[in-house]
Amino acid sequence: MSETLPPCPECSCEYTYEMSPLLVCPECAHEWDPSAAEPAGSAGGGVVKDAVGNVLADGDTVTVVKGLKVKGSPTGIKAGTKVRNIRLVDGVDGHDIDCKVDGFGPMQLKSSVVKKV
To answer: 11, 62, 74, 117: least buried by Cβ within 10 Å?
Structure first.
């Protein structure tokens, strides 16, 4: 069970356990809410920046800065396409933005190919 639980953020103890909605550390007695900690440290605990260095946040509107190929689509996403209401996630292969692109539907993008509006 302890393999799936994160270590204690205070003392890095591996033996954390669940108690109702909280996680508890048996060594330092620190208690924390894992669901509250996840969004605050989204994308691996660091800040997510766009292609020009602006800090991104959930709900931002971004513009795609270069043309992107989309698997299964004859046309890709063109540079300049606006994407509204992004959500930051811990994605696969550096895809740290979850969004819905008009004409393509839901997908994940890399923060290195977008610019904050």
So the answer is: 74
Residue 87, H or E segment: strand 87-88
Per DSSP, what are the bridge partners of residue 97? 88, 109
> What are 24's strand-pairing partners?
17, 31
Spatial separation of the C-alpha atoms in residues 22 and 41, rounded to whole Å:
17
d(CA 36, CA 73): 37
Cα–Cα distance measured from residue 48 to residue 54, given in angstroms and rounded to the nearest whole number: 8
pTM above 0.85, yes or no: no
Question: Which pair of tokens denotes residue 13?
Answer: 């103890």
Q: Residue 38: phi, psi to the nearest 5?
A: -60, -55
Query: Could you list the mean pLDDT of each consecutive 10-residue stretch along the chain, which spans 117 residues?
Result: 71 86 87 65 66 92 93 90 93 88 91 93
